[in-house]
Amino acid sequence: MIEHRPFESLGRFENDWLSARYHFSFAGYDDPARRGFGKLLVWNDDTIEPRRGFAPHGHRDMEIVTYVREGAITHQDSLGNAGRTEAGDVQVMWAGSGIQHSEMNVESEETKIFQIWIETAEPGIAPGWAASAFPKGERSGELVVLASGTGEETGGTEGPLRIHQDARILAATLKPGQSVTYRPQPGKSAYLVPAVGRVKVEGDGTSFSAKARDGVALADVEAVELTAEDQSEILIAEVPA
Q1: Residues 118-163 pLDDT 10s
Q2: What's the CA gap between 71 and 207, in Å, rounded?
């Protein structure tokens, strides 16, 4: 199954500092057909106005991955962690037994992020946070694992960051005409979103173009071919079905 979910079909929220689009049911948006995807519970597409953001609030027992599309996000939490994550880079927070955090755009321009929530496999663990830079040049033309709970993670500043679920976050940048083949691991579903550009998706007897911020749900698929129609950047969450 390959399902195209155009950006225009997503749930939405607007206020004076946040423009959000929801790939799955979240907060006041409830679509019975889009209540998560396997262990992937949330994929929010947030545009945050300058010098605004999410004030301190709490989470428990969730793996929260933030991918910065444009600008930068500044993190602070109740454990004393603080950091600034720039466009193209990723941060992870495992909420575990409970954590308070804020995510602020302290820049002079808009910040655009993807927030991805994955159900944890280890409830009640000590919470934590980590971030890492992944220069685009190093992943040009190939899929690179940004975060993982499958044993390939390092937990440091190089290689995949650790999450506490048998899941992976992958990313790639593609030049126009460049292709990459994605093969989900056995027993996994995947959700793909182009962060930038437009990508032709081919597989399972179907073919279509997914533009920036569209969603593509993949289940029971052996492989999909992804070909950039423009300069593109893609992000994939691979999770237990």
Answers
A1: 999 999 999 999 998 876 665 678 999 999 998 765 444 467 899 9
A2: 32
Question: In Å, what is the CA distance from 116 to each residue of 37, 41, 151?
Answer: 12, 8, 20
Q: What are phi and psi of 36, to 5 degrees?
A: 80, 175
Tell how strand 144-148 and strand 161-162 pair up: parallel
* pLDDT at residue 235, rounded to an integer: 96
If we measure between CA atoms, which residue out of 164, 167, 154 comes closest to residue 236? Answer: 167
Spacing of C-alpha 203 from chain mean position: 22
Count CB-CB contacts under 10 A for residue 30: 12
| Residue-by-residue DSSP string for the chain | -EEEE-GGGSEEEE-SSEEEEESS-BTTB--TT-S-BTTEEEEEEEEE-TTEEEEEEEE-SEEEEEEEEESEEEEEETTS-EEEEETT-EEEEE-TT-EEEEEEE-SSS-EEEEEEEEE-SSTTPPPEEEEE---GGGGBTS-EEEEESSS---SSSSSPEE-SSS-EEEEEEE-TT-EEEE-PPTTEEEEEEEEESEEEEEETTEEEEEETT-EEEE-S-S-EEEEESSSEEEEEEEEE-
Any residues with CB less than 8 A from the CB of 26 and at least 6 apart, and which? 11, 42, 44
* Residue whose tokens read 């940004």: 146
Tokens 């694992």 identify what position?
A: 145
